[in-house]
Amino acid sequence: MKDFIIIGHKAVTGTFSLNDLPGAAGRMDILCRCVNAALFLSHDLRRDVRVFLVLKGEPSPPKLICFDGSAVRYLSPDERSAASLIKKALEKNAQDFWTESTPGVSVRKGDLDILLKELDKKIIYLREDGEDIRKKNFGEALGPLFLLGDHLGLTEDEERIVAGYNPEIISVGPLSLHADHCIVLLHNEMDRK
Fold first, then answer.
1. Which of 20, 31, 185, 193 is the most buried (most CB within 10 A)?
2. How high does pLDDT run on average in the chain?
3. What global pTM score does this model have?
4. In angstroms, rounded to a whole number, what is the distance separating the alpha carbons of residues 45 and 76?
């Protein structure tokens, strides 16, 4: 199982309009594109992938949402479809444990540190100053865990939390890319190995 964690610093944790994902929903569009990049193939889904979203926006942060490629239903390859499933998950009464909102989509209260402890895997942190992806053999590792920030990157506190897990820091290239593009490049590298 390949896991992806994407942090949404402004992504709302309450109800939001599907008509304004970049604005009123706190850049939910970024998270939706990441879900699609991580899970979709041309005519299928990657069944061996889970996507964890860390939502840190108002009104009740933080919350975690998980998309499990082996079980997800009702997901189409567009931002609005993923946003609709996120919205349904946020309508659930989030607890300190995972609660399924729709098949393959679950929600819980929690932040990055709780999620990293729960997953208990070696972290591969994508950062522009990391080692070139092509010099690494992470694709051979059982169940890699990739961590990506949103358009704001990670905060100093988040950097400290991640550093406590002794992550591998990698880069997918010399230019700054969108998180969803990084995910596509990661999949491409692993598919080739």
1. 31
2. 95
3. 0.96
4. 10
| Cα 132–chain centre separation | 21
Show the domains of the chain with their CATH numbers.
Answer: 2-192 (3.40.1280.10)
Q: Check: CB of residue 124 under 8 Å from CB of residue 133.
A: no
Q: 3-class DSSP state for residue 141?
A: coil
Inter-CA distances, 88 with 19, 91, 114, 164, Å = 15, 5, 22, 33
Interstrand relation of 145-148 and 123-132 (parallel, antiparallel or unpaired): parallel
3-state secondary structure of 127: strand
Q: What angle do CA 11, 71, 165 make, to 5 degrees?
A: 55
Strands (E), the chain: 2-8, 49-55, 63-68, 99-102, 105-109, 123-132, 145-148, 168-171
Query: Cα(first)–Cα(last) distance of the chain, in Å?
Result: 16
Q: How large is the average pLDDT for residues 30-34?
A: 98
DSSP H or E run through 38: helix 28-39
